[in-house]
Amino acid sequence: MIMNKELGYVIEKALKQVPLDYRMVFSLREINGLNVIETAEALNISEANVRVRLNRAKTMLKKEIEKSYKPEEIFEFNLTWCDRMVERVMEKIYTMEDFLIRTP
């Protein structure tokens, strides 16, 4: 919990160092969940520009975070792997629930 709080602080601090144009795209896409078209319309920029700014914002954010952590200390969170793991765990839970319901 303490590490998550510290990491949250580091990310927030790092994000403040990213120039506003890039930070806005990052916030709309990654934090607020807007898609590329919605972000482009909200900022009155092209879809290509949204993609470029998002990639650059992520690169800048990574560099800022690496000022606080060594690259080998940063845990790369792979969402594809996570989704598969969650699916397997949920399958086990549902299987166990079915078993418990049918067991007298």
Strand-helix topology:
Blueprint: H1 2-17, H2 20-31, H3 36-43, H4 47-65, H5 79-102
Notes on the protein architecture:
This protein is mainly alpha-helical and 104 residues long. It is built from five helices and no strands. The protein has helices at 2-17, 20-31, 36-43, 47-65, 79-102. Helix 1 (2-17) packs across helix 4 (47-65) and helix 2 (20-31) packs across helix 4 (47-65). The longest helix is centred in the C-terminal third of the chain and has 24 residues, at 79-102. It is flat, with a radius of gyration of 19 Å. Residues 77-81 have low confidence and may be disordered.
Distance between the amino and carboxyl termini: 40 Å
> How can the largest sheet be summarized?
none
Q: Judging from the principal axes of the Cα atoms, what is the shape?
A: flat
Radius of gyration: 19 Å
Order of helices and strands: HHHHH
Which features would summarize this protein structure in a list?
104 residues, mainly alpha
Brief sketch in words of this structure:
With 104 residues, the protein is mostly helical. The protein is 76% helix and 0% strand.
